[in-house]
Design a protein that fits this description.
Length: 237
């Protein structure tokens, strides 16, 4: 039986966007491969909410915004005002993981100074501005490791032509909340999401609607299919 005793830390992360001659680009940071959580993965800047941020804020949402702005500055050297952060989803690490986070995801446009990314070479080893579709293609070719929240956020953002359009659209879209459940199917790891027929029983083989991400030999594959999912696909506007 999965261990549910691991405490859940509150966190915030931000998808930073900029406009380029080639279209919209997002900032990705590669975590030190030796880190216990998501080592070697390409992620968005972010991290845990400090206790003093919770104490000073009127709500957890406000504390998440403050923590996210701080983490952006610490991890990549950019200044993003909290009022520019647009909340568009929440992800909670699945039961069974050694470290669990309940994370607010924000999106924000970065203008002048977007090229002044500074990383510490400690927790973060590399950075790159990249088109969402290009990042997805590199992931499928095995060149860019991503976890489902990063993959699905980029899959959503690839539909927008500019950073302004992405931020304005997500500002009026109802944020979705995801608490994945992990299981296996034919030796593949499956992340079940609300609306999947197997979500409640944590059984990916049950017939019915599909709402899941599967780790395959060519990377993550997202499946939102069937008539009764009841939730919008996370990769579509």
């Amino acid at each position: 039986m999965a261990d549910q005793s691991v405490s859940i830390r509150l966190a915030g992360t931000a998808v930073l966007l900029r406009n380029s001659d080639n279209g919209i680009e997002a900032l990705l940071l590669r975590r030190n491969a030796k880190l216990a959580f998501a080592g070697g993965a390409w992620v968005f800047p972010g991290g845990a909410i400090d206790s003093h941020e919770l104490e000073a804020a009127a709500s957890k949402h406000e504390a998440a915004m403050a923590a996210t702005a701080r983490e952006i500055k610490e991890e990549c050297g950019l200044n993003v005002p909290t009022q520019d952060l647009v909340h568009f989803c929440n992800w909670t690490t699945p039961v069974g993981e050694k470290r669990r986070f309940a994370t607010w995801f924000f999106v924000a446009k970065v203008g002048e100074g977007s090229g002044n990314v500074v990383i510490d070479k400690g927790e973060i080893h590399e950075s790159q501005w990249i088109k969402p579709q290009q990042a997805i293609n590199l992931h499928h070719s095995g060149e860019l490791t991503m976890m489902p929240p990063t993959y699905l956020s980029l899959s959503l953002l690839r539909h927008y032509e500019t950073a302004e359009l992405a931020c304005s659209a997500l500002a009026v879209r109802k944020p979705y909340d995801v608490a994945p459940r992990l299981c296996r199917l034919q030796n593949k790891i499956v992340c079940l999401y609300p609306g999947d027929a197997g979500y409640s029983a944590i059984n990916s083989a049950l017939p019915g609607p599909r709402h899941r991400a599967v780790f395959t030999s060519r990377g993550l594959v997202y499946d939102h299919s069937g008539d009764d999912v009841g939730l919008m696909p996370m990769d579509q506007p």
